[in-house]
Amino acid sequence: MKLSRREFLELSGKSVLAMLALSLPKKLLAMPEEMAKFDWEDYYWGYGIDIEKCIGCGKCVKACKVENNVPDEPFFFRTWIERYVERKDDKIEVDSPNGGKDGFPELKNKKDIKKSFFVPKICNHCEHPPCVQVCPVGATYKTKDGVVLVDPDYCIGCRYCIQACPYGARFLHPEKRVAEKCTLCYHRITKGLRPMCVEACPTGTRIFGNLKDNNSIINKFLKTKKINVLKQHLGTKPKAYYAGMDKEVR
Amino acid sequence: MSEISLMLSKIMPFIQGFIYPNDIELHWGILIVLYPYITGLVAGAFILASLARVFNVSEVKATYRLSLLTAFAFLSTATLPLLGHLGHPERALEILFTPKLESAMAMFGFVYAWYLMAVLCLEIWFDYRKDIVLRSANEKGLKKIFYTVLTLGSKNISSEALALDEKIGRVITIIGIPSAFMLHGYVGFIFGSVKANPWWNTTLMPIIFLMSAMVSGIAMVMLVYMVTQWLRKKAVDMPCVDTIRLYLFNIFLVDFALEMLDLIHRIYAAEESFDVLSILMKGNLFWTQFVGQILVGTIVPLALLALTFLFKTSPSIRKSFYFVSAILTLAGIFFMRWNVVIGGQLFSKSFLGFTTYKLNLIGIEAYAAIAIAILPFVILSALIYILPPWEKE
């Protein structure tokens, strides 16, 4: 084969470019150390919520909606914030305007307030998830590292899982017509990153980590705080752990 | 904004108290109300048929075949409301092909298929085999071909063969009774096993569903029988309807007692969910539960039926009482299904507030429901035309 100088240069240039292109992704998209050796047997994820720290700013809700393409309307949330207000006459008022995404309006009759606090909510990734139990086709399932997920290509949209979830953590995606819920940002945590809501929280209310690792932040949280879970009597064994939760919280 | 979001924003002004944001959408609507209603009619109609076949209640023989055809007509439409409600109806068969056995709902396909194919189709075929063979011989043209196909090649109608048919039919009915119980008790279990929902979560649910199924099915066959006799300008067989009334009344009493037991238990135990449920019953469900289901749909028909026992009445008065009680009973059981399915979703799982269900907002779903409610009667008319149930009279 005889090459002209022009062809030779062109071919060399292309080869160099191709080689660069092949090596680039490795360099540019290099996963953190943890991803390279991610083995779900090594992890069991837990989620902590320190109620005393939450200021109801809504950054977590916003971050979740953006990160996970959650429909923007106020009926679909993978995570949301509730505000509890206990009046002096023991009356409880709860609100969550737009899931707390844009913060909360100022309270009325402040003098009557006994106490008030914010409660972030999320899928509890239960150890005994009733949603997984009822799914007729196995489209919703628990991963080995303890995350409850939905396979959108398999879900038939019967909504039985939505009915079975005691925490209101699921919704039917209005366009995809399948059940949707928090995945703990599974696409991030398997790369060694934290869920987006945890990342976005400015006060450290939301804590996330590996329950199998004794020194993880979640285990420190569980060791140092008095912990409660939502609707314990239902036996679902939630893995969203709350510190400082009032008895009025449902 | 999607259609659902538009609908939900119209619902927003009707929300009371605090509701989990994902609970605002009421997920199982009128179609899922129809589903237990229709399967209930199937189970009830079949039980009435089995009275004649297995328990030898000779008085109700006149409605035997009609009961079977009614059960078949409703069963053939029972999957439609479910299908119509799925987010992905095209994936519906996954329930049969890749079921998850742990799920109560996954069993539906099998229970349904078993009941339709192994029980109803077989029983109807064996019972009509002689008629089908005779018609395949006597009819002409397309009809002849149709009935010949229906014989499935089995043209022996000797007395031995017919005696065998009778035997097999009886065995199928005996298998069919627990199957009918399973079909509808199972539908009750789908709701009763949802521990997240205190309005549904009761062990009594399957048995209440079963009893109310028998009530509605018996009332439906009684109504269909009286209407068809009137259309055919034939006299109503009074001993037959009197006997049906007896069964309807007794089973209805048991059903009502169980429902009241459930209600009293809830009030007495007054568990965590009691506050929200009592607001639900006094408010959102007052008209459909206390007025529709309990008063008009249960107490009035029971009282009307009781009157026919207590006082000697002429056949024409009895007939009109039965007719009215059957209609009210059917309405009452419909309200019962409504109160279970819709009622169970009106309150938030936060137990702190209520959403609402507006039929006028759901548009196409309401039209689909009407079509699905009418379809069984169209199918029944066709079945009566193809396989007239009266020839044994």
Provide an overview of this structure.
The complex is a heterodimer of chains A (250) and B (393). Chain A is of the alpha+beta class. A 4-stranded mixed β-sheet of chain A has the order 9-1-11-10. Chain A has a 3-stranded antiparallel β-sheet with strand order 3-2-4, covered by helices on one side. The radius of gyration of chain A is 23 Å and the shape is elongated. Chain A has helices spanning 5-28, 33-36, 59-67, 130-134, 160-164, 186-189, 196-200, 217-224, and strands spanning 45-50, 79-87, 92-95, 113-122, 140-142, 148-150, 171-172, 179-180, 206-210, 227-228, 240-243. Chain A contains 8 helices and 11 strands. In chain A, a hairpin with a 6-residue loop joins β7 (171-172) and β8 (179-180). Chain B has 15 helices and 2 strands. By secondary structure, chain B is mainly alpha-helical. Chains A and B meet through β3, α4, α5 and β7 of A and α1 of B.
Can you summarize this structure?
The complex is a heterodimer of chains A (250) and B (393). With 250 residues, chain A is an alpha+beta fold. Chain A has helices at 5-28, 33-36, 59-67, 130-134, 160-164, 186-189, 196-200, 217-224; strands spanning 45-50, 79-87, 92-95, 113-122, 140-142, 148-150, 171-172, 179-180, 206-210, 227-228, 240-243.
